[in-house]
Specification:
The protein is an alpha/beta fold and 638 residues long. The chain has 18 helices and 32 strands. It folds into two domains: 470 residues, ANL, N-terminal domain (Rossmann fold, 3-Layer(aba) Sandwich), CATH 3.40.50.12780; 133 residues, ANL, C-terminal domain (GMP Synthetase, Chain A, domain 3, 2-Layer Sandwich), CATH 3.30.300.30. The structure holds adenosine monophosphate (AMP). Keywords: ATP-binding, Ligase, Nucleotide-binding.
Length: 638
């Protein structure tokens, strides 16, 4: 038995079969697996093939059998002023009811169910109900608008879409149904049914024969008993879209058994979370953090998960309350909390006394992920709440942390600015971008890559496109078949990694990943725009924000500052309407040309350097130096 974190990690690399067979005992298997790991077809890997299990059984049923009265889900909404709790047995019934409703709408094992939902408990019921039936859920973040949604509908080809009339943010109702109807009209694939949760927040048009009310089916199936479908460990549990370097989002495809084992292993070792305790993750179910650490992870581990709809600075009754999260920690005796650096930077604008006003004695640690955690933010919150603050680095693709500390195995010291070391199961490498050579020296900058095979829980492939999976992730570094994270990193002499930003055209805004190409495609769809470049620029609050440099078709459209402002507003509106406000650039600046290489490749990194006041580096490939001057002028004006 390993006693130190280093031994634990070493064992996972030296003898993965034994290590993961041991971890697999953390979940229930209906039938044991034939093998721990099938590596006969690299870069693909199958974890626990032949084993039959079910995510919902492990998250709900097994705990309902042993602890029927233990709280499983607490939902708090400061948007609609509600606080509700479901015990494991009540959650089981809700999930079975939802599963019966989906079955009535024709959902069968392997079918896709797309969820376009706000942070309401029905979203959790629907995810678990899909897992129960062996249906594949695909949650689309509620902040995305119709064009983004339509692209995902066409890729996932769902049998059913589950949605709601509206979400609410800061008291402002955001109607979902019109966006959904528009997306379905734009998409070539048409779902057979839309299951609608009516929150009574916004009127929603009903398409006869297609749209069905959750309240009707819920009443009909209130006492339904729907057994779990025992699926192979390699059965796809869900797809989740994420941005890449092309305009087309990638459906990250995840298995069942490997994911359950990875999450079950991560909760005690990384997060030091234990059955019967309360877990509070402030993310959204539309992101991978929400999948792994609002829904599946804590529930599989027998913890109570606290799901919150509301802003971090908003209390009940529409009152501002910068201490709402700490109030909830006290009330629900949260022991593990998971949030993002951006959320903490929002809190930083509040009175620090709010951090001391509540009894946080139940809380053991605050975990932050999704974007680089700057030292001042880490120190501010650590000192403010007097608890360890632990950075963890991962991606939609990995499904669980890649770099962090294993405090549950052995208490470890955090190093400011570093998420920590490679987690068990991950063969982390730093490679030279051009030669593929491994960089073993301290503080050498390289691309963070992961050796084959990826551990359980990581993506199986890109949904419907194995070739894209292989080409995108496994062929980007010359001469090596390794998985690229597309992040730059260095490692210090003690093995602590420091992430230095993306190697590709993906930006990270408030912990949300956005593809600059997607935003560019949306903006170039505006009839007045000839060409556009979107780059991520450092921002004190959100980490990065998108900034657009657009070339108008007709210079007269931006002849005066008023005209330019009007066109900027139009462009932003277009992004809101097609991709969603989440992708809206912070600024749109108009220029007469964009810097490109002689072969026509847009020099995004050069533009980004100029915007951030850095040296743009080697400009020998630049075609027209005047274009650079335009960007400089526009960036200065911004
Ligand atoms: P996503 O797939 O949306 O979760 O985005 C993953 C990307 O976010 C990573 O590839 C990193 O660029 C960034 N990221 C996530 N967590 C961290 C972290 N703890 N520190 C630095 N960057 C992070």
């Amino acid at each position: 038995m390993a006693t130190t974190a280093a031994e634990f990690i070493q064992q996972s690399l030296d003898d993965p079969e034994t290590f993961w067979a041991e971890q697999a005992r953390r979940i229930d298997w209906h039938k044991p697996f034939d093998r721990v790991c099938d590596t006969s077809n690299p870069p693909f890997v199958q974890w626990f093939p032949g084993g039959l299990t079910n995510l919902c059984h492990n998250a709900v049923d097994r705990h309902a059998a042993t602890h029927p009265d233990r709280a499983a889900l607490v939902w708090v909404s400061t948007e609609v002023d509600q606080e509700l709790t479901w015990t494991t047995s009540q959650l089981l019934q809700e999930v079975m009811t939802m599963a019966a409703a989906l079955q009535e709408l024709g959902v069968r094992q392997g079918d896709r169910v797309l969820l376009y939902m706000p942070m309401i408990p029905e979203a959790t019921f629907a995810m678990l109900a899909c897992a129960r039936l062996g249906a594949i859920h695909s949650v689309v973040f509620g902040g995305f608008a119709s064009t983004s949604l339509a692209a995902r509908i066409d890729d996932a080809r769902p049998a059913v879409i589950v949605s709601a009339d509206a979400g609410s943010r800061g008291g402002k109702v955001i109607a979902y149904k019109p966006l959904l109807d528009e997306a379905i009209a734009l998409a070539s694939h048409e779902p057979a049914h839309v299951l609608m949760v009516d929150r009574g927040l916004a009127p929603a048009a009903v398409v006869e024969g297609r749209d069905v009310a959750w309240s009707t089916l819920r009443a009909r199936h209130a006492h339904a008993s729907v057994p779990c479908a025992w699926v192979d460990a390699t059965h796809t549990s869900y797809t989740l879209y994420t941005s890449g370097t092309t305009g087309k989002p990638k459906g990250v495809q995840r298995d069942t058994g490997g994911y359950a084992v990875a999450l079950a292993a991560s909760i005690p070792t990384i997060f030091d979370g234990h059955p019967g305790e309360t877990w509070f993750c402030t993310s959204d179910i539309g992101w991978v953090v929400g999948h792994s650490y609002i829904v599946y992870g804590p529930l599989i581990a027998g913890m109570t998960t606290l799901m919150v709809e509301g802003l971090p600075i908003q209390g009940f009754g529409g009152q501002p309350d910068g201490g709402i999260w700490w109030r909830l920690v006290e009330k629900y005796k949260v022991s593990v909390m998971f949030s993002s650096p951006t959320a903490i930077r929002v809190l930083k604008k509040q009175d620090p006394a709010l951090l001391k006003r509540h009894d946080l004695s139940s809380l053991r640690g605050l975990f932050l992920a999704g974007e680089p955690l700057d030292a001042p933010t880490a120190e501010w919150i650590r000192d403010g709440i007097g608890k360890p603050v632990i950075d963890n680095y991962w991606q939609t693709e990995s499904g669980w942390p890649i770099l962090t500390l294993l405090n549950g195995v052995e208490p470890a010291k955090t190093r400011l600015g570093s998420p920590g070391k490679a987690v068990f199961g991950y063969r982390a490498l730093l490679l030279d971008e051009h030669t593929g050579e491994e960089l073993t020296g301290a503080n050498q900058k390289g691309v963070l890559a992961l050796g084959y095979p990826l551990p359980p829980g990581c993506m199986q492939t890109v949904w419907g496109d194995d070739e894209r999976f292989v080409q995108t992730y496994w062929h980007s570094i010359p001469g090596r078949q390794v998985y690229s994270t597309f992040d730059w990193a260095v490692r210090d002499e003690d093995g602590y990694f420091f992430i230095l930003g993306r190697t590709d055209d993906v930006i990270n805004c408030a912990g949300h990943r956005l593809g600059t190409r997607e935003i560019e495609e949306s903006i170039s769809g505006h009839p007045a725009i000839a060409e556009v470049a979107v780059v991520g620029v450092a921002d004190a609050l959100k980490g990065q924000v998108a900034m657009a440099f657009a070339v108008p078709r007709d210079a007269a459209r931006v002849a005066t500052p008023e005209l330019a402002r009007a066109l900027e507003a139009e462009v932003m509106k277009r992004v809101d309407e097609t991709l969603g406000a989440v992708a809206r650039p912070a600024r749109v600046r108009f220029v007469s040309g964009l810097p490109k290489t002689r072969s026509g490749k847009l020099l995004r990194r050069t533009i980004q350097a100029i915007c951030e006041g850095r040296d743009p580096g080697d400009l020998t490939t630049l075609d027209d130096p005047a274009a650079l001057a335009h960007i400089r002028g526009a960036a200065d004006a911004a």
